[in-house]
């Protein structure tokens, strides 16, 4: 049995919408491109046809991966987690004790991680250092560049 993937309700909705779009408009558009390329004659020397078929394969692979991910998705029930500790979906404010800069992060599953959006994977070196920490606690994250110390300022 495949492992469960913990996702927020919002992320599940985003993935379902993307999957529906690819299965309907994506497939329809791809079929049109393949038909157009096929109409250009000899398929053995038709680079446009080959490219369209390759794109179709990538589209079907993405659809398959999304279906697999959604079939394993579990919505996170926050009522099972303590409010005074960092856990998945916690919104936290931390201070880097070296740079003295303050950052806001949301703790998420690896499938939702996006540093540009302030979403850190609970399994990343920094994310795993935050997990279970409480307000006021100093945590050390071992990263390739060394060790970074953070102070947990707030947990929401």
Molecular structure report:
With 156 residues, the protein is α/β, with parallel strands linked by helices. It folds into 2 domains: 5-75, Transcription elongation factor, GreA/GreB, N-terminal domain (Helix Hairpins), CATH 1.10.287; 78-155, Transcription elongation factor, GreA/GreB, C-terminal domain (Chitinase A, domain 3), CATH 3.10.50. Helices cover 40% and strands 24% of the residues. The protein contains 3 helices and 7 strands. The chain has helices at 9-38, 47-72, 125-130, and strands at residues 5-7, 73-75, 91-96, 102-108, 119-121, 138-143, 146-155. The strands form 2 sheets. A 5-stranded mixed sheet has the order 5-4-3-7-6. The chain has a two-stranded parallel sheet with strand order 1-2. β6 and β7 (146-155) form a beta hairpin. α1 runs antiparallel to α2. It is elongated, with a radius of gyration of 22 Å. The model has no long low-confidence stretch (mean pLDDT 89).
């Amino acid at each position: 049995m495949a492992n469960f993937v913990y996702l927020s309700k919002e992320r599940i909705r985003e993935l379902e919408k993307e999957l529906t779009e690819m299965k309907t408009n994506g497939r329809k558009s791809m079929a049109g491109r393949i038909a157009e390329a096929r109409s250009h004659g000899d398929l053995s020397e038709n680079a446009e046809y080959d490219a369209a078929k390759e794109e179709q394969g990538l589209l079907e692979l993405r659809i398959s991966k999304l279906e697999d991910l959604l079939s394993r998705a579990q919505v996170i029930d926050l009522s099972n987690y303590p409010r005074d500790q960092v856990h998945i979906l916690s919104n936290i404010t931390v201070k880097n004790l070296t740079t003295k800069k303050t950052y806001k992060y949301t703790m998420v599953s690896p499938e939702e991680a996006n540093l540009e959006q302030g979403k850190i994977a609970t399994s990343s070196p920094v994310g795993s250092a935050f997990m279970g920490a409480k307000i006021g606690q100093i945590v050390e994250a071992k990263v390739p560049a060394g060790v970074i110390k953070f102070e947990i300022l707030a947990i929401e």
